[in-house]
């Protein structure tokens, strides 16, 4: 009895835990675009077919077990032999073939359709209709480059709704995988080739999901793999163009307070500038961009992609990034900070905005 209860409570616990998986900002079961819809349809279709097969086979299995129980039919009874029965052979060959056809046709059709990225390679591409975003994954952060606009951002992906957004993806160190659960993916980011695909974000449904979606790394890449998150923000097409304008017209925000000025000075002295850019039009070659661009840091909702944005967390991150994200590439690359230095740096960083 006690054993049974253990099993029951395990199931109960699982139900509770899994019930949390339906959040609209990171659930594949609540698709927010056409691409996600199609992937969701394929998931449902293949699951239904599999469940159907399991049910039918189980029913036959239990029927046979019960009907031909030895204690019921006796020791010496041999049931009617059906080996080589033509009708049966045809039936159990035809049904799987039929099921496979039902599965294969939409899978192949959608694979070809969703893999069609020819529009992004056209010579005369209108960036307003066919937006391209270059994604670069690094241990444990994400860079998003908008080549048509000369914009480089990190940690937060900004996309327009109701149009195809094309992605060109790669990694700078080890393999990662780009995944926005509610919008689609996953697709590997590799070091030796570029992958391409597109996603769509439906304006109505993305509104319901809240301001930010979650993006994830879906390929085990190191000790902080599970913390390699990014955020996705959707804007209407007009708002998006407004955003690109703001980013390209960027003017360095003036550090207002003495403390912020002190922070700006420290940012140079402590080596931070050798990795981090503070302007969205980062013209350094890709290999030199070894850290998240901080031009919009003051507007982000998360620190290092994972912790809520507030003074305490920013300071804690600057003093000891290792305790947030083990194995990250910032740890130990600058002289240790004391509390007042962290205060000044926070003051400076919080003022980095594009408004
Ligand atoms: C060797 C290069 C390097 C140096 C030097 C460096 N960082 Fe970083 N920094 C990184 C990397 C890499 C990350 C991303 C870490 C991660 O998320 O795994 C990062 C992340 C950050 C973040 C979080 C970014 C975000 O988008 O949330 C802040 C803030 C930051 N660094 C500030 C600083 C400051 C201030 C200094 C100087 C005291 C500094 N960094 C020095 C490489 C560096
Ligand atoms: Cu990863």
Automatic annotation (TrEMBL):
Gene3D superfamilies: 1.10.287.90, Cupredoxins - blue copper proteins (2.60.40.420). Residues 20-118 form the Cytochrome oxidase subunit II transmembrane region profile domain. InterPro entries: CcO_II (IPR045187), CcO_II-like_C (IPR002429), Copper_CuA (IPR001505), Cupredoxin (IPR008972), Cyt_c-like_dom (IPR009056), Cyt_c-like_dom_sf (IPR036909), Cyt_c_oxidase_su2 (IPR014222), Cyt_c_oxidase_su2_TM_dom (IPR011759). Residues 128-246 form the Cytochrome oxidase subunit II copper A binding domain. It is a multi-pass membrane protein. The chain crosses the membrane at residues 41-66, 87-112. Its cofactor is Cu cation. It is found in: Cell membrane; Membrane. It catalyses: 4 Fe(II)-[cytochrome c] + O2 + 8 H(+)(in) = 4 Fe(III)-[cytochrome c] + 2 H2O + 4 H(+)(out). Subunits I and II form the functional core of the enzyme complex. Electrons originating in cytochrome c are transferred via heme a and Cu(A) to the binuclear center formed by heme a3 and Cu(B). This is Cytochrome c oxidase subunit 2. It comes from Bacillus altitudinis. The gene is coxB.
């Amino acid at each position: 009895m006690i054993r049974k209860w253990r099993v029951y409570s395990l199931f109960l616990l699982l139900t509770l835990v899994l019930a949390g998986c339906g959040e609209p900002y990171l659930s594949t079961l609540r698709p927010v675009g056409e691409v996600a819809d199609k992937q969701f349809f394929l998931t449902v279709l293949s699951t239904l077919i599999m469940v159907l097969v399991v049910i039918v086979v189980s029913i036959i299995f239990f029927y046979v077990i019960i009907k031909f129980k030895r204690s019921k039919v006796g020791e010496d009874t041999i049931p009617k032999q059906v080996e080589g029965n033509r009708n049966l052979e045809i039936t159990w060959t035809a049904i799987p073939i039929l099921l496979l056809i039902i599965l294969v046709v939409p899978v192949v059709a959608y694979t070809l359709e969703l893999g069609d990225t020819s529009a992004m390679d056209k010579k005369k591409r209108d960036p307003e209709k066919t937006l391209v975003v270059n994604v670069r994954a690094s241990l444990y952060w994400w860079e998003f480059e908008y080549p048509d606009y000369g914009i480089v951002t990190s940690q937060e992906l900004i996309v327009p709704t109701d149009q195809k957004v094309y992605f060109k993806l790669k990694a700078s160190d080890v393999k990662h995988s780009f995944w926005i659960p509610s919008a689609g993916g996953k697709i590997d980011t590799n070091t030796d080739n570029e992958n391409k695909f597109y996603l769509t974000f439906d304006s109505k449904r993305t509104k319901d999901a809240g301001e930010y979606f979650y993006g994830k790394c879906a390929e085990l890449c190191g000790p902080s793999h599970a913390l390699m998150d990014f955020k996705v923000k959707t804007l209407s097409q007009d708002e998006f163009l407004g955003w690109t304008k703001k980013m390209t017209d960027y003017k360095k925000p003036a550090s207002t307070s003495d403390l912020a000025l002190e922070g700006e000075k420290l940012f140079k002295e402590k080596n931070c500038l050798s990795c981090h850019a503070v302007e969205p039009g980062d013209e350094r070659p890709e290999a030199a961009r070894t850290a998240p661009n901080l031009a919009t840091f003051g507007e982000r909702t998360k620190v290092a992609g994972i912790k809520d944005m507030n003074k305490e967390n920013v300071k804690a991150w600057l003093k000891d990034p290792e305790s947030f994200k083990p194995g990250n590439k910032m740890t130990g690359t600058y002289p240790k900070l004391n509390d007042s230095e962290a205060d000044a740096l926070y003051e400076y960083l919080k003022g980095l905005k594009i408004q």
